[in-house]
Structures are given as C-alpha cells and as structure tokens.
Task: structure prediction
Amino acid sequence: MSMVNKAARFPIPLLLAGALTLGLATPAVATPPGIPSAATANSELASLTVAAEGSMTGYSREQFPHWTTVSGACNTRETVLKRDGTNVVTDSACAATSGRWYSPYDGATWSAASDVDIDHVVPLAEAWRSGAASWATSRRQSFANDLAGPQLIAVTDNVNQAKGDQDPAQWKPPLTSYWCTYAKMWVHTKYRWGLKVNSTEKTALQSMLGRC
Result:
C-alpha cells in the first residue's frame, strides 16, 4: 500500500516507527534509459509524421508477444521491476519477493510487486494505430519488450489501468511535475520506432514539453 494510505490508517508515532525500521530509505525514481533532452525531444517531435490514427482491426495484445526472457529465469517485466525498484529481492524464479517502488506518475510508494505494473509508455494499441499494424510480429515483440529506450517503466497498477491505450491528448500522469519527462519518453519512443502522431496528440506533447 502507499505511504499516503498508511498515514490514514495508523497513528503517526507507529507510522514513524515503521519508517525507521525501513531505514527511511528513499526508493529510486524509475528512470528508463534514453530519455532525451527537451531540445532533442522537440526536434524529434517536429520530425514525426502527423496523420490520423489507423484502424484497430486485427489488433490484440497477442500481436505484441511479451514478456520475453531476458536472462536466465528473468523476463522483461521482472527485469524492469529490478531496475526501477530499491532493494529488490527475487526468488529462484526471478519473481520479486520484496523491495520498494516509487511511481513517478502519481508519487506513490509500494512495497509489493503486485501493486506495480510495467507501463508501455506508448501503449501497444496506440502503436498499432500509429503504424505498428504493418510490422512483422518479430518487430512488435521487440517493441513490447524494449529495454534500450524509455518505453517501459514501473508505475502504480491502477494508474496504469486508468491510462489504458490513451495518448497524451486524452491522458497525462496525475503528477503535473512529471509531464515534461513523460512527453520526452513518449516522443523519443515514437521517434525511435518510426511511429506517427495525430494532430491533437502533437499539440498536447508540445504543451507538455513547454513545461521542461
């Protein structure tokens, strides 16, 4: 559960005692690789093709196979959980048994991996509508498991579920302070993978980058 919710349920002295037991360690902020500067993101956004979104015909999440094995018993989800968490302990099957995760979308901190989702910054369905429908399945698999760029990030599960497949014109992270970073990640992912943007999406991204 989040620290905010804990404060509502327990007296402050007890909450502080629990925090001291944890050593008051601040969880690492989830920071995927390859987040560009604002100037680079603006340049990349300007270069993207602007077009109406395509059809959802033929789409399913199975068109983007995930999570694939990364190393040993660890798949992509488990790899991102370890990357984005603090003091993450895993079992022999690479499942996270303990750790702490700070979700930059909403500022919540979690101590159970089950409370955390791995968000595709550019959702799979959004990618499908933006050009991925014409890709080979192998390319869609690479996109869905992309650890080299800022496409995967550990965040609060219900926040990720609220986002669904919406683009930044329709949904933005609850924390406005994260809008700049989110826009940079979104733009760079679309740029790296050659995906299109629609006009309202581009306008929203320009506004978000204006906060940087």
